[in-house]
Amino acid sequence: MKRSILVTNLCVIFLLFSSVFVYAENNTGAEDPNTTRTENIASVANTNPGLLQDQPLEQLFFDVPASHRAIKEINYLATGKIVSGSTDGYFSPDRHVTRAEAAAMFGRSLEFNGTNTVTNFPDVGQSNFASGYIQAASDKKIISGYGDGTFKPDKIVTRGEMALLICRAFGYDVTNTQASIKILMSKGIAQGMVDGTFGETLPLKRSDFSVFLARSINPTFIHNYQSTGTKNAIIKKEGLEVHDGPLLSYGVISTLVNGEEVEVLNEFGNWAMIKSQTTEGFVQKEYLEFTSDPGTTPNPNDVYEYLKSQTIVIDAGHGGHDPGSSGYNVQEKAVTLDVALKVQSYFAANSPFNIKLTREDGKFLELSERVALAKKWNGNVFVSIHTNAVNGKVSGTETFYYSRATNPHVEQSRLLAECIQKRMIEAWKLNDRGVKKGNLHVLRENSMPAALVELAFIDHKGDNKLLTSESSKDLAAKAIYNGILDYYKANGINVSAFYK
């Protein structure tokens, strides 16, 4: 192995720990051999050739080879001097993050004054490598001490604590760990463990923290990232430098002219991530004149344009020579198509979403063809419509999502399923059979948040009446439509104008 280790420009010596952690974030299909439960790190293909993550991977640390699942994120933070390794060239990606290290990494990201200082904590002396960052992060209410007045700088950070710290650092309006987890999951910063949980009590690895922090700083590291501006700004400096990241230590990829208009994609500390006609990167916010006040919610036109870019794929189950389940002389394939067409009508008449149907008639499609269409259309949401059947005695509605890493959007898929299930129960008032994990092809093999709703039991007399009633099918379509809007609302998008 060629060991061209570039560590001389890294700013702080991180402490090495004695324990090894067996939980990890991981690339899709590339499981860490030391792990039994992994979080997905799906590979990101950015269209902007200027950003660092698209450059050839260079090994900066002996223990982070080009094949490492988090090398892009670790290299990105190391290039910005946000993280570093030991003097002998090791990053120790599998070691746990301490509270002192977390404070230092947040402090460097946010350009806090890291000069060693006297702190408010008796167990953090001025000589502690992170004393300046700890005090600054405490003053900014990002991280706090304990009831006895101590800080416990060597205490290991858990995944749940990490979620709360990131939300505080980025100004997300949350007050507890659970709300923080939902924010990170909804934004794609975290994707959860392969068993469907977040693992909030598990210790946090240095490599995983690097992934979360890189995604928070630069959303192009997020799987299926789509650059969508929420406000516009005008450049107020001739030759304004555009950097790879939100620090001057990141390289300059282009310059902008005075008076040039740009879209603002993300804001971080004193920096904004912008997109012009020719480039995408980070600039200092002091040289931007916002057309709307920073920190305000997008105006209705911005939301409308964003939703126009969102593709909703509705899949009518079965079709052609595959009738699906049946009962009382009614076939599933006919019911699902009727409801799907009604859902399409709701979207077309009431919203700017781009709506696609896998089938609009009685044709047959293989399951793989349905998934292929959704991917071809670059779908943002996939909903498959079905009916159930057992023995004529079971009644109710249930909605499924896939809970493993083949589809990397476990939490988002669960959220989507929960939103649709809730609306269906309100609409039809059938037995609530709940939101469940389902190993179903159209969910498992998809690459976007996906849910499958079983409207009712076609072989149950009472359920069958709903499935054959035009007004009831319209209520089901409306419930699915509003449920998808609820999903977007839960992700922070103002869709109130589009509800029916």
From TrEMBL:
- EC no. given is 3.5.1.28
Q: Which residue positions does the secretion signal occupy? A: 1-24
Keywords assigned by UniProt? Cell wall biogenesis/degradation, Hydrolase, Signal
- GO-annotated biological processes: cell wall organization; peptidoglycan catabolic process
Q: Which Pfam families match?
A: Amidase_3, SH3_3, SLH
Q: Where, by residue number, does the polypeptide cross the bilayer? A: none
Where do the SLH domain residues begin and end? 57-116, 117-180
The SH3b domain covers which part of the protein? 230-292
The record's listing under Gene3D superfamilies reads:
SH3 Domains, Zn-dependent exopeptidases
Q: Which GO terms describe its molecular function?
A: N-acetylmuramoyl-L-alanine amidase activity
Record-linked InterPro entries: MurNAc-LAA_cat, N-acetylmuramoyl_amidase_3, SH3-like_bac-type, SLH_dom
Record SMART domains: Ami_3, SH3b
User: PROSITE patterns, per this entry?
Assistant: SH3B, SLH
Would you name any one GO CC term?
outer membrane-bounded periplasmic space
This chain's protein is named N-acetylmuramoyl-L-alanine amidase
